[in-house]
Structures are given as structure tokens and as C-alpha cells.
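Whiteboard transcription, Tuesday session. T.W. wrote the C-alpha cells on the left side:
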């Protein structure tokens, strides 16, 4: 394949598709697939601009999040009275975040994401019963308002950069609102679809998307998203919590090692 970035070999596309499949699976279960997919794009396309990498990642990701959101909806029917207002706020936040993200130096985000992941992982380990069952901490307007705040704040982050967004959504829904991990994952996918759509609302008119690469990766992300959602629904909140801790720990090691110069 040829284009503005030069020749992209079939092997490179195949590896990007595998990365997208793994990212889609992880994202469907616990979120954070961007922490797999975006570095893969950086390594595979060293000549691409940051905005191109972010936009192409969003194109692949929205295919996976839409698939996993539909799969969750068919199997566990998450309450849309919470999910839809949260998703609307997430969309608006992501549009604003994407407008900011074009200008913000990306190197500044790695330490912030690392600190957030450490806090999230430590809190989850400290609360072994967290997310086993749904025990909502707020009701009615307060509950919906809290979900809207979660959607908007994390939407801004996702539009500006994005890796770890799904994990942060899941954690906020579990830790603050009181959902079980499985139901939180279902609602998080609806909001994550909205954040991806919001970012693309900015990136597509700006001409940043590498359509051929993103389209190929989208197929892998769809497969991963479908499999991940099926596995999560079948194995339940205990499995989702366990994988959440493992994935957050792996991301901490990867980002920490990057900051310490252990790898690129």
C-alpha cells in the first residue's frame, strides 16, 4: 500500500491488524485498548503526524466500541437512562478535547496517565469487593448528573489523547457510581463510542485520518470487540475485575518503563 507516508508493507498491516484485534478485546472487557493500539501505530508509521496517528486510532476504535456496545446491549441490556446522557456529555467533551489535542504536546500526557493508572489500580486492589455487585451510591437526578460529569471529563481526555479512556470510564462507574464491573463495562462502551465519534467529528474534516490503514485495523478491532464482550458477559464481573487489575498493572509497567527509558 502506498500513500503520503510511503510504502506500507502487507506485513506491517497484518501486525497492525493483530494489534487492533488485541486492543479491541481488551477494550471490550475492561477498556484501555488504545494503550495497545496507539503505540503500535507509532511504531509502524514513524513518518505520520501525531494528529494522523490519533485520528487513525479513533477510526479503528470506533468500529470496535460500536460492536462491543451492541453485543453488551443485546445480552445484558444496560440502563440507557444513565448511559445516553453520559454518552451525550462524553461526545461534547471529546469534541472539545480533540480541538485542544491538536495543539497539546503529547509527551506531557504519559506521566499523567501513569499516575492515574497507579491510583486506579491501587484503589481497586485495596477494595477486594469493589464491583462485585451493583450497589448504586446515588439515585435519580444526582445519579444521572454524576454520570454526565464522568462522561464529559473523560470525554475531554479521550478527545485530546485517549489511551486508557475505557479503563477510566469503567473505574469511575464502579468506584464512584457503584456499578458492578460487568454493567460498568457495558455502559462504558456506549460512552466510549460517543467519545470516539466526537474526536472523529474534528479529525475527519481536518483530513487527519489515514483511511486505508484505519479501515484495515477496524476489521481487527471489530473482531476483538465482539469476542471481548462475549467473554465478559459469559464469565461475569469477577473475571472482568481480575482482567482489569492485570491490564492496569501491565499498562503501569509499560508506561513506567517508557518514562525510565527502558524501551521506546
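and on the right, the sequence the group agreed on:
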Amino acid at each position: 500500500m502506498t500513500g503520503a507516508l510511503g510504502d506500507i508493507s502487507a506485513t506491517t498491516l497484518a501486525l497492525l491488524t493483530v494489534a487492533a484485534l488485541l486492543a479491541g478485546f481488551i477494550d471490550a472487557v475492561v477498556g484501555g485498548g488504545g494503550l495497545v493500539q496507539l503505540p503500535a501505530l507509532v511504531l509502524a508509521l514513524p513518518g505520520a503526524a501525531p494528529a494522523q496517528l490519533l485520528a487513525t486510532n479513533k477510526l479503528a476504535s470506533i468500529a470496535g466500541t460500536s460492536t462491543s456496545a451492541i453485543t453488551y446491549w443485546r445480552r445484558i441490556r444496560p440502563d440507557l437512562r444513565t448511559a445516553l446522557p453520559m454518552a451525550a456529555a462524553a461526545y461534547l467533551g471529546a469534541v472539545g478535547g480533540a480541538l485542544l489535542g491538536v495543539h497539546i504536546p503529547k509527551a506531557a500526557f504519559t506521566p499523567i496517565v501513569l499516575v492515574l493508572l497507579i491510583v486506579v489500580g491501587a484503589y481497586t486492589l485495596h477494595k477486594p469487593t469493589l464491583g462485585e455487585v451493583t450497589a448504586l451510591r446515588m439515585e435519580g437526578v444526582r445519579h444521572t448528573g454524576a454520570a454526565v460529569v464522568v462522561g464529559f471529563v473523560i470525554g475531554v481526555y479521550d478527545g485530546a489523547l485517549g489511551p486508557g479512556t475505557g479503563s477510566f470510564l469503567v473505574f469511575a462507574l464502579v468506584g464512584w457510581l457503584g456499578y458492578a464491573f460487568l454493567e460498568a463495562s457495558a455502559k462504558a462502551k456506549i460512552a466510549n463510542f460517543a467519545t470516539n465519534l466526537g474526536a472523529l467529528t474534528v479529525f475527519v474534516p481536518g483530513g487527519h485520518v489515514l483511511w486505508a490503514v484505519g479501515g484495515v485495523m477496524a476489521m481487527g478491532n471489530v473482531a476483538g470487540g465482539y469476542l471481548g464482550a462475549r467473554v465478559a458477559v459469559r464469565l461475569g464481573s469477577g473475571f472482568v475485575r481480575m482482567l482489569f487489575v492485570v491490564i492496569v498493572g501491565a499498562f503501569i509497567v509499560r508506561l513506567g518503563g517508557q518514562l525510565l527509558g527502558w524501551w521506546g
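Someone added at the bottom: The longest helix spans residues 211-260.
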